[in-house]
Each structure stands twice: as structure tokens, then as C-alpha cells.
Amino acid sequence: MSVNYKNIYLSIGALSQALGIHQRTLRIYDKQGILTPSRTPGDRRSYAISDLERAKFILFLSRNLGINLAGIKFVIAVFDEYKIKPENYFKHTDSIIKKLNITTSEQQNNILKNSKRGRPKIKK
């Protein structure tokens, strides 16, 4: 028996828990237009499996490549323009990363820089 994943939807709470991020982050993505879920009749956000894939990709761009929301918005718009499906985002990105020669160590440095531990302390 196969499962039809196209008919599975997640609440904002379920998606935020699956991704390990705060619900507020998902609301920001929605406001910025980079992750726009459908809405229930009660006006609640309803995320499809493709939204989950897009959200994982957004987090990858932000955390691993150090791209800000404006840059992410641009990348998503280009992928949408070329009709690249969310489940193929990583495949296309990997080939671009290889062409640009972005190393694993550069990605690790971005992860550290974007983490709370890697941020410089602000002196008061």
C-alpha cells in the first residue's frame, strides 16, 4: 500500500517541531513570501509536504551558506522561475556549490558564524 503524500498537511506547530525552529520563524518566512502555506477555512496555516522540503532548503541556505532572507527570496524566485520543484532544490544547489567551489569548511564556518556561539559578544 502506498501513501499519497500530496494530501498530507501540517500545522505550523507540527512543522516548526519537525524542523526544530520557532513558529515565529515560519511566520517571518510567510510574511517575506518565501514559504507561503495554504490556509484552512479558519485562516490557520496549513503546510504541505512540498512546504516542508522548501523550509528545509531555506534553513540550509541560511545556516550552511550564510544567505540572508533577501538572498533566499532571490534564490527561491529563480528556482520558481525555472519551475524547479522543492524536492529537487538540493540537487540543483549541490551542483552550483560544486561549480562555485564552495568547500565544506566554508559551510562549517558559516554554520559557526550564524550560531549563537560564533557571534561576537556585544559589550555594554
List keywords for this structure.
124 residues; mainly alpha; Multidrug-efflux Transporter Regulator, Chain: A, Domain 2; 56% helix; globular
Describe the overall structure.
- This protein is mainly α.
- The chain has one domain (5-114): Multidrug-efflux Transporter Regulator, Chain: A, Domain 2 (Orthogonal Bundle).
- The protein has six helices and three strands; from the N terminus they run βααββαααα.
- The protein has a three-stranded antiparallel β-sheet with strand order 1-3-2.
The fraction of residues assigned to DSSP E strands is 5-15%
The overall number of domains is 1
Largest sheet: 3 strands, antiparallel
Cα distance, first to last residue?
61 Å
Q: How many distinct helices?
A: 6
Structural class: mainly alpha
What is the secondary structure topology, with strand pairs?
Blueprint: E1 9-10, H1 12-19, H2 23-32, E2 38-39, E3 45-48, H3 49-63, H4 69-81, H5 89-100, H6 104-114
Antiparallel strand pairs: 1-3, 2-3
Task: Please summarize what this structure is.
By secondary structure, the chain is mainly α.
